[in-house]
Design a protein that fits this description.
single chain, 442 residues, Neuraminidase, five-stranded antiparallel sheet
Amino acid sequence: MRRLLVPLLFVACTSVTDAPSPIVQATDLIEAGPLVRALKVELQSPAPLTVRYGTAAGPDLEVRSAQALAHDILLSRLRAERAYRYDVVGTSHSGSFETGPLPSDLARMTFAASGNPTMPLVLLHLYDPEGFKGYAIVDGGGQVVWFWRTRDFPFGMTRRQNGNFVFMDKDRGLVEVTVAGDVLHELPQDVAHREMHHDVISTPRNSLLFIAFDAREVRGKRVKGESIWEWSPEEGSTVKRWSSWEHLSVVRDRGTRFGTEWLHANSLAIGPRSNVLLSVHYLNQIISISPNWLAIEWRLGGVNPTMGIDEREQFFGQHTAREISPGRVVLFDNRLEKGDYSRALEFELGLGTAHKVWEWRPKPDNFAFAVSSARRLLNGNTLVAFGMSAGLNGSTGPTEVYEVSPSGEVLWRLIVTGPRVMYRAEPIASIGAEKEVVESRR
């Protein structure tokens, strides 16, 4: 039985002007999407508006809307099976609502959090072949506060300038999704000619880059190389920007895992000079592509490198490489060919050489055979995710996420139970326009 919410009293914002308080003419509250409510407010005259909402246990959130006569406000970052109250600040209007349960396959997963994270939310790529497949956002307490279901493996995500999510679904393709769960644009998967996989990122031009296989005949056999495509959803156009066949040699540039796949690229990132970083799994290498797509600037580690590293610092089967500042590269090193432990690494690039300047691994060690991620936060901390469940391809498990400081201190840990694979963990500042209220309540 759900408990009734004890009404909350929110502190109203005090205006520094003599502007009259807005007068509410009508309101309407509807369920807009997964753990999202849409509140429509009509005023007597145009005015800015603030709506605060929360549960008896908190946290309290607020959304601010610019001056208008009619406001459409999304109440996001809701928890399942909770009673909420909302207040239109500066007016007498308030209301309440209850959220329903999570879908049963997602509810079977558990997210056990400990510590105090500095980022409010984390987006997880979750895959259970017999259960939930898709993306779920959890808060610092390990509560699911948003989700999106895929038909197959969740293969990467990004956010556009408008705040919409773009998700890669191995079966469906690329899908642009609003906070309310509406699909605005979709680029269908094309396995025969342009099979997209592993990553999608947004660009300063408000377009999207994604990885796709580029197959050619090599001595009578079909071999999958790699290409990078650019999609402009509003224009409905796709352009191939780069192909491995034009910049690498299928004869000379190959690793020990070469087969029907030549390179197995697994992440994209835009660098500080608008260069594009491509993580190449089968070469144990990070490649920097020039901003005009015409040349490879450098090749870090692995096969035929132009940026050599000490063999004791070599990474194996790496993921999520990013150049976080000029000459600084952070990545997740699976250590696939070693099979002992996985770690997060940071390199400083020099003239033809690179040196490890930071490394982190948990205690006890965790070996993730595949997937996983390392993301540097704006405050200098790093979000490190080990995405393989225990026993899967020799992985030790558990499936877990850490936020760690530059000194290696663990600030927050999330243990995820249920999915077979957690592809990545991404830091998220907010779902919609919601922000946590910092002042105390009376």
